[in-house]
Specification:
Elements: H1 3-9, H2 20-29, E1 38-45, E2 57-61, E3 72-75, H3 79-86, E4 91-93, H4 95-104, E5 111-114, H5 119-122, H6 126-129, H7 147-156, E6 158-162, E7 168-175, H8 180-196, E8 207-214, E9 220-222
Parallel strand pairs: 3-4, 3-5
Antiparallel strand pairs: 1-7, 1-8, 2-6, 8-9
Helix pairs in contact: 2-8
Length: 229
Amino acid sequence: MGKKYKESTKLIDRKTLYTPLEAMELALKTAKANFDETIELSIKLGVDPRHADQQVRGAVVLPHGTGKKVRVLVLAKGDRIKEAEDAGADYVGAEEYVEKIQKENWFDFDVVVATPDMMGVVGRLGRILGPKGLMPNPKSGTVTFDVAKAIQEIKAGKVEYRVDKTSIVHVPIGKKSFEVQKLLDNFRVLMEAIIKAKPSAAKGQYLKSVAVSSTMGPGIKINSVKVLE
């Protein structure tokens, strides 16, 4: 552990479950790196992701965005190409970008949006994009004919959440440069979405634990009973 990390841990009581407000304040105090650290939530859920009926996945637009400039690749054809360009997509095309990803290992983008009629071609990228969490998916709104709306939401701060194989959801909610209230607003919107996404097959306690941390800082535990207060 580095000197700054050790200093940060002294500000936190590991046994305490903080209120969301206290946790956001501490997350900013413990973000001591000399760059604009990302503030991220880690939510342990009472689900078994090995079962299809206990998957937790979706997307939500954070009111204040994530503080990160998101590069959007749109795979479309026909009239949708100009529509995507006008909406502010960073890259727009079809088979040429699929080949570029396959042959050149090109990944200068953060989100991929595809129209439904392109999914036959995009499917060839499943093994490449899937492990990176970049594969377009209807549940997250990235497979759609309304590419303009999808791009606008992504640029406005839309984030995807998905439970991993350890039953944890990791989602960025802002930057060290954010005010506490903006982090709190983003936190509440995200938590509301995840609570609403609870699978009917999930039994027992749904929110096992909630923690927030900066890129280089320690985790700060949040009282899961008070997440929407």
